[in-house]
Amino acid sequence: MGAVLDTVLIKVASRCNINCSYCYVYNMGDDNWARQSKLMAPETVAAICTELGALAQHQLTPFSVVLHGGEPLLLGSRRLHELLRQLRAVLPVTYPISLQTNGILLSEELLDCCAAHHVSVAVSLDGPAAVHDRFRLTHGGGGTFAQVMAGIARLKAHPAADFLNAGLLAVIDPTSDPAEVYEFFKSVGAPSVDFLYRDGNHSKLPEGKTSLHSLEYGRWMVGLLTAYAADPNPLPIRVLDDMLKVLLGGSVSKEGLGLTDFGILIIDTDGTLMKNDTLKSTYNGADQFAQPRTIRDTNLLAFLESAEFTHYRAMQQPTSAKCLACPALNVCGGGMILHRYHPDNGFDNPSVYCADQLHLVAAMRRMLGAYSLDYALSQSA
Q1: End-to-end alpha-carbon separation of the chain, Å?
Q2: Which of 83, 211, 317, 365 is 20 to 30 A from 66 in CA distance terms?
Q3: CB pairs under 8 A, 24+ apart, for 118-122?
Q4: What is the pLDDT of residue 381?
Q5: What does the buried/exposed string (b/e) look like for 85-102 if buried means 16 or more CB atoms within 10 Å of the residue's CB?
Q6: Segment 273-289, tens digit of pLDDT
Q7: Which pLDDT value is given to residue 1?
């Protein structure tokens, strides 16, 4: 088998119990969710398990499965248990299964279910209340911080918390104080945090970014890097860890960084095979394959070898002349696909975060250079 799949993201619920203002699923123009059933049907679950089981028999390396939405915990404990039971019947524990949730619906029963099937839980939390509650809102417009923190408390108190707690996912607010956000996450006791840039592109810049050349996000990330580097026991931050690892000669674990090629497939709530769903933020239907297929009527092994999937996977690699000539390309990888979009020429552009990333990479190089000099001086003393 030539193609290798790294991640299968399964959108088990098409609706969400909150309404984040920056959400690419509901609030950036795509309307596919409105045509979906609210929850994944049993026959779709069965087809997924059949195809993933066959893939596991052919692919030499394990792939990860991520349960997503909407809000995946809207499934409820009975449906979640049955889904995980069927997945684990075909995928041993060497295949990581995780669940990305806003944390509000986390309960002892649901956590017990995840623990029983060896499924880890990642929670979305943007920072302290003043940061989080600006954007992660209820459908009535209220903040969700207190409810999320209650869910995180239940997660941390669970007997299997050391395995279950997969860390936090945070969307950056460039108007916040990065040092304050870092200290908050340290106080929460998160095992790790993954920070994301806001969705946006060349026709609609991300919120908080005033131009292609402005550095709001880059300066924020350098502030985060400064807090991280000053901490003798730093909180693992995947985006920083990966970029520093590349600068030191290693490889990345995250899509949108470095030049590692990741095979990522999305399975929508109705079973339709989709491209990376963050592409929804570029234009309506951008995450759809030209020839619609569902997991119920497609041989997944054959699809992963198809020209259409190969072309989609190749989209991760930048094609713009500016990116290809850039000495920082091996670190930033040209950024996420969605951040390169322009309606005039598609994805053949540098990321809208190009200036921010170059600012951050330069700061990292200075930091590593100073560390090497300090270390050399200490060794010669």
Answers
A1: 55
A2: 317
A3: 118/88, 118/93, 118/163, 119/67, 119/84, 119/164, 120/96, 120/163, 120/164, 120/165, 120/166, 121/155, 121/164, 121/165, 121/166, 122/98, 122/166, 122/167, 122/168, 122/169
A4: 40
A5: ebbbebbeeebbbbbbbb
A6: 999 988 989 998 899 99
A7: 45
**What is the model's pLDDT at position 254?**
64
Angle of helix 216-230 relative to helix 178-188, nearest 10 degrees? Answer: 50
Please tell me whether residue 338 adopts helix, strand or coil conformation.
helix
Burial class (CB in 10 A: 0-12, 13-18, 19+), 1: exposed
pLDDT computed for residue 3 by the predictor? 60
CA angle 26, 164, 18 (to 5 degrees): 20
Q: What size, in residues, is the chain?
A: 381
* Angstrom distance (rounded) from CA 288 to CA 303: 14
Read off the amino acid at residue 108. Answer: E
pLDDT, one tens digit per residue, over 63-108 is 999 999 999 999 999 999 999 999 999 999 999 999 999 999 999 9
pLDDT, residue 256, reads 66
Q: Tell me the C-alpha distance between 381 and 377, whole Å.
A: 6
Peptide bond into 249 cis (omega under 30): no
Integer Rg of the chain from CA: 21
Q: H or E stretch including 161?
A: helix 161-164
pLDDT confidence of residue 252: 73
Instruction: Check if the beta carbon of residue 283 is closer than 8 Å to that of residue 343.
Output: yes
Residue 277, SS3 per DSSP:
helix
- What pLDDT score was predicted for residue 44? 98
Return d(Cα 149, Cα 59) in angstroms, integer: 39
Residue with tokens 């131009």: 211
Euclidean distance between CA atoms 3 and 304, whole angstroms: 6
Predicted TM-score (pTM) above 0.85: yes
Quick one: which H or E segment has residue 224? helix 216-230
271: which 2 tokens?
A: 């079973």
How confident is the model at residue 380, as a pLDDT? 45
| Close Cβ partners of 223 (under 8 Å, ≥ 6 residues apart) | 177, 178, 179
Domains by residue range for the chain, with CATH: 7-314 (3.20.20.70)
Residues in the chain with pLDDT values less than 50: 1, 375, 377-378, 380-381
